[in-house]
Amino acid sequence: MRALQVPAARRAVPGLRSSGDAAFRGLEPLMGQARGGAARASKRKDKRMEWPLMTVLGPILFAVIVLWVMAHNRQTKAEKRRTEEATRKRRAEEEADQKAQEGEAG
Prior knowledge:
Blueprint: H1 8-11, H2 28-31, H3 37-72, H4 77-105
């Protein structure tokens, strides 16, 4: 029996040697038979080492950032006084407008 000719596009797929391999191409990494299996295993090991680092340093870094934002987001006394005064003035204006509208309607 003559071997099947594999089109050029299919030959470019890593791990695909003949048309019969197409069914097993997705299973190769699971079976440890993929090209560069040792390199992939090493990458997986590196990723496993990253998780403990991320689970410890991630929350610590997040807490530091939140604390820094809280510390740098405070108003000075002058800014707070100015905000309170503007709020009082705005409420007085709204109250006067509301009384004027009630006087016109009633």
